[in-house]
Design a protein that fits this description.
Blueprint: H1 2-10, H2 12-31, H3 41-47, H4 55-62, H5 66-69, H6 78-93, H7 95-101, H8 105-135, H9 151-178, H10 183-194, H11 196-209, H12 214-236, E1 238-245, E2 248-250, E3 253-255, E4 259-265, H13 272-289, H14 294-302, H15 308-329, H16 332-341, E5 344-345, H17 353-387, H18 396-419
Antiparallel strand pairs: 1-4, 1-5, 2-3
């Protein structure tokens, strides 16, 4: 293990990429502590004291506490994810965008540019909603969160939060291009992990005072370890569809047929469904929490993690995005055509359309199993944590994202090592990518 770690730093390019990733993540974490102008931070902190286990607690966890402190990165990366969802949906229902997605690198550049514009537009909308809501908020003693409200504060807050989200988007793109791993996923990963030390400290404090029983802590740790083990097992699980290649004549000799397989991941969409589902729910609910209207407050409370209404919408969005993202990234017709052109076939299945229909059936069943697995991982631990009144939000969604992003990053490091004839990152075990 130590030899493998030493090999990482012997590769100049890999060492630079890891260092670049760490520096950019450090910049992101510094920005999470730069406050937005015009806000009384002490009064705002009292508003979030009871937000643990609520939707605001979930949003704050994804932003690394930036929303709780109302810093320049308070919106986090969620507007970018929401814009990505809209563009991906348009690739299915809007023909001009679909044509762009099939035009190779040039088309992807155009879609990326539109995603950036959409991110700015959504940031402006969310920033305006939060700014208006902050003006109506007061502390327990009646102190206003915004000492000097007005149009100037709203405009300043919109510009600050939008610029913060744009900068986070740029950081994520730079990490993806010049660093290791997916930049957007690593930013969410860093935001969640940043809350871990304070969560451990608070749990230890409550454990010493007797507010949190020792058996409860042991039970929750066992649940978390079991969930992590299940995530690792399921993320590496795959269905191998056998493929045989017919014999061919090369020169004066017959070249024997070969056998291979097509690996289909059980969870081909990875951590995308829970991130997309969380983003869809967070967008209106985040603004609703800052609006001082009774029925809006009641709706926001009903959409808190652990509530039955939140779980219904969350599971429904997860299932939808599991099927949607799998359909976008894997086309059975194209795969069947490629197998046919290479002289291959699936035993017992005729080449061409029957092969694509067979792959579609297999993929649908695998996607259903993957959607059930992701839904259980994201919902059940959160319900247990809310049941035991744990003083932090680190539920199944967070565990899935942390473990999934960790596996993806480790897989990229493994690829760099193996491509340069070094031993893999994990001795005796290959870290497989999460997509087939």
């Amino acid at each position: 293990m130590f030899t493998s770690l030493r090999n990482i730093f012997t590769i100049v390019e890999l060492r630079k990429r890891i260092f670049y990733t760490l520096v950019m993540l450090a910049v992101y974490r510094i920005g999470c502590h730069v406050p937005t102008p015009g806000i009384n931070g002490q009064v705002l902190a009292t508003f979030f004291e009871g937000a643990q286990g609520t939707l605001l607690g979930l949003v704050s966890a994804f932003t690394g506490g930036a929303l709780k402190r109302m810093t320049v990165f308070a919106l986090g990366i969620m507007p970018y994810i929401s814009a990505s969802i809209i563009l991906q949906l348009l690739t299915v229902v809007f023909e001009p965008v679909e044509r762009l997605s099939k035009e190779g690198e040039q088309g992807r550049k155009v879609i990326t540019r539109w995603t950036r514009y959409g991110t700015i537009a959504l940031s402006v909308v969310q920033g305006a909603g939060i700014a208006v809501g902050l003006q109506s908020m007061t502390g327990p003693a009646g102190d206003p969160v915004v000492p000097h409200p007005g149009f100037g504060f709203i405009l300043l807050t919109i510009i600050t939060l939008t610029a913060g989200t744009a900068f986070i988007m740029w950081i994520g793109e730079q990490i993806t291009e010049h660093g290791v791993g997916n930049g957007i996923s690593l930013i969410i990963f860093a935001g969640i992990v940043a809350n871990l030390p304070s969560a451990i400290f608070n749990s230890m404090r409550l454990l010493r005072t007797g507010a949190l029983p020792l058996l409860t802590v042991i039970f929750l740790l066992a649940v978390m370890l079991a969930v992590v083990a299940a995530i690792i097992f399921m993320e590496r699980a795959q269905r191998r569809v056998p493929i045989h290649y017919a014999k061919s004549v090369v020169g004066m000799r017959n070249q024997g047929g070969q056998s291979s397989h097509l690996p289909l991941k059980i969870n081909m969409s990875g951590v995308i469904p829970p991130i997309f589902a969380s983003s869809i729910i967070m967008f209106p609910a985040t603004i609703a929490n800052f609006v001082d209207v009774p029925w809006v407050k009641n709706m926001a409370a009903m959409m808190s993690p652990g509530n039955w209404l939140y779980n219904v919408f969350y599971v429904a969005f997860i299932v939808f995005f599991c099927y949607f993202y799998t359909a976008v990234t894997f086309n059975p017709v194209d795969v069947a055509e490629n197998i046919k052109n290479q002289g291959g076939y699936i035993p017992g299945i005729r080449p061409g359309k029957p092969t694509s229909e067979y792959l579609d059936i297999v993929l649908s069943r695998l996607t259903f199993a993957g959607a059930v697995y992701v839904s259980l991982v994201c919902v059940l631990p959160t319900m247990l944590i809310n049941q035991f009144n744990v003083p932090f939000y680190f539920g199944g969604t967070s565990l899935l994202i942390v473990v999934g992003v960790g596996l993806d990053t480790a897989s990229q490091i493994e690829s760099h090592l193996i491509s340069r004839s070094y031993e893999g990152f994990m001795r005796g075990a290959s870290i497989k990518g999460r997509r087939g």
